[in-house]
């Protein structure tokens, strides 16, 4: 399977998990147009890659058991020095509070 097709499937599974709309493995397999065993393989591989996937018998759906999100790209460009200088990391917001004169009542 070409890597772009593989990543599309993972993104689709991720979006369904985020919406808590996977259904059970059989339903998810239909949504993915895969066999049940192929779907189980995808879920297993995603878990091995670090996705915190669990299954709720009550909801009959897969879900993430920790907060986070899937990385959008496998390749990103590094920022140059000018772009790095523009990032304040909240410093500007923090200085708003330091520079205020608070009077005590």
Protein architecture, described:
With 105 residues, the chain is mostly helical. 49% of the residues lie in helices and 8% in strands. The protein contains five helices and two strands, in the order H-H-H-E-E-H-H. The chain has helices at 3-18, 25-32, 36-48, 81-86, 91-98, and strands at residues 53-56, 61-64. Strands 1-2 form a two-stranded antiparallel sheet. Helix 2 crosses helix 3. The longest helix has 16 residues, at 3-18. It starts with a helix and ends in a 7-residue tail after the last helix. The mean pLDDT is 84.
According to CATH, the homologous superfamily of the domain at 3-64 is Winged helix-like DNA-binding domain superfamily/Winged helix DNA-binding domain
What's the mean pLDDT score?
84
Strand fraction equals 5-15%
CATH-defined fold name of the domain at 3-64: Arc Repressor Mutant, subunit A
Radius of gyration: 21 Å
Give the overall shape, derived from the CA principal axes: elongated
Major beta sheet, specifics?
A: 2 strands, antiparallel
